[in-house]
Amino acid sequence: MAAVHPALAPYVRSVVAYDVAFAGPGVHIGMPSTGLTFVLPLDEPLTVAWDGDPASRTVGWTSVSGLHTTAAAVHHGDHQRGIQLSLTPAGARAVWGVPASALAGRLVGLADVAPVLADLPERLAGEASWEARLEVLQHALLDAVRRHEAPSLRPEVARAMALLTRGVPVAATAGDVGYSRRRLGTLVHDEVGVTPKTFQRLARFSRAHARLRRAALAGEVSVATVAAETGYADQAHLAREWTGFAGCSPTEWLRREFPIVQATGEHHGAA
């Protein structure tokens, strides 16, 4: 995880430089979230498609996707290196000059959304160290933000999205910001391309995914505990949502992504 420049903090949630060796070719599950994904592979083009939809497959030196409710199937060989960013909805306007809604449910290349940045993969490939690559990337992002002079989200829309992210019901969120549910739905959809309820579900799912991932990295996990900690009614509720968004159950996801971890139900269990 690389540090995010303060001027980019409203637009970039995370920057991760990755260098991963696999046991062999396979498919990584790209999980839905409330962020937009921006990937810059280094050694070979990235092959990605929406899970279950081979026609959506793209191959390229960049991958850009908006908010989505279907997992991405990211194909890999024995080794992958690159940089992956997660952008906020405001980051779509600031970095690419388009609203997040324009990219909802789409997989595209960087040249399709921001041609001025099309040479970024070549510039990164020309650097010999991670430090140098990250510096090139940071300068490119800062230049993009200055170039677009992206306006901030309307304060009431930004507040509504923050409330939805925290799990405040849609009706209560609409009342808090002084809108009808219909008006709030229009404004949120215009900004991110999904309804307020879907945005809220994505936020809750993203919390559960992050919590389960941390538990898996620690070598033990309880799906029931994660469900309770992240706002689901019970483990079955989490399992239904997880299957809908990820295309598999939490236990199957753990088996595929963390094969040495043993998932448990009502208690913590070590691998």
How would you characterize the overall build of this protein?
The chain has 3 domains: about 5-150, Jelly Rolls (Sandwich), CATH 2.60.120; about 155-195; about 210-270, no CATH class. The chain contains 11 helices and 12 strands. The protein has helices at about 90-95, 110-115, 120-125, 130-150, 155-165, 170-175, 180-190, 195-215, 225-230, 235-245, 250-255, and strands at about 10-20, 25-30, 35-40, 45-50, 60, 65, 70-75, 80-85, 105-110, 220, 265, 270. A hairpin with a 7-residue loop joins strand 4 (about 45-50) and strand 5. Helix 1 (about 90-95) packs across helix 4 (about 130-150). The protein starts with 11 loop residues before the first strand and ends with a strand.
Q: Give the integer mean of the pLDDT values.
A: 91
Low-confidence stretches: 265-271
Strand order of the largest sheet: 1-8-3-6-9
Shape: globular
Number of domains: 3
Gyration radius, in Å = 19 Å
Share in β-strands: 15-25%
Give the number of helices. 11
For the sheet with most strands, the description reads: 5 strands, antiparallel
Keywords: DNA-binding, Transcription, Transcription regulation
InterPro entries: AraC_XylS_family_regulators, Homeodomain-like_sf, HTH_AraC
Pfam families: HTH_18
Protein name: AraC family transcriptional regulator
What features would you highlight for this structure?
271 residues; Jelly Rolls; five-stranded antiparallel sheet; four-stranded antiparallel sheet; 11 helices; disordered C terminus
